[in-house]
Amino acid sequence: MAKIWDFASYNLLYLHSPPVGLEHLHCDMKRGFTKARKGEPEVAELLEKDNIYQRIGLLAQKGVWEFHHDCLMLSRRDAVKQVAEIIQLNQEVDLVQERVIKILDNYHNHPILWDKNIIQLSRGDEGFPEPILIHQGSYQFNLYAAIDCIFMEEDGSLNILDLKTGKTGFDKRQGYIYLLAASYLYPNQKAVASFYNLETCQWSEKITASPETLQCILIELSRVSQQHQKLLRLYRNNPADFKKIFPPNPGISCRYCAFNSICEFTVDEAIA
Ligand code: SF4
After folding, report:
1. What is the pLDDT, as a whole number, of residue 102?
2. From atom 3 of ligand 1, which residue's Cα is the shortest distance away?
């Protein structure tokens, strides 16, 4: 059987259509750099530099995993120090160390999974999750849903938990994608999704989805996946048309954009 290259994920959906309220930060050209030009050395270098916030998320996830890997760890008074040593936090830049220590401290004080029946807890560095092959009419694509944690609620339903860091809000669409994945992975079990921010110690509400909602998200993912492949093909055949295929949206988003040093459309924040 031929390999399926078409794919969808929450990240791809986010890059195509921003969550409500963040439209002003959306720029298609950013997606062009990230997805179509990631193989170019100067783009690859910028992508590598931009991963500081991903690094914080990864180490936070590893830390939570370590707290639960050794069942006595959470009860140790020096648990934060121990976990920081295991994840080699001292090898990170200062900003990462500061934020992750605070996260570990928060988690040690509020170990939200302490009394939960954990079915699956990811360490965060396992690489790409196994894709789920989705058929939508005659179209097929791989769905990638990296699940941080699954635990069982008291009523027997599964809670697909996503651990967050940083200030970004919770996007319900991501919860729906987890529930769509769960409907394939655990077809006979009820499931809810939720988010927990390890820095602010905030839980989201529990997210549920009707079969109609799951169908809608599946159709949307299929549309985004097809659109993405179409634009990548267009760019491969016409690299000179980069700015037409991935139009820029200069403005306040340029300030936070990893590509502002190489983008000809970047604007100064004062002008934006
Ligand atoms: S610098 Fe501005 S216009 Fe250029 S890719 Fe980034 S956000 Fe878009």
Report:
1. 97
2. 250
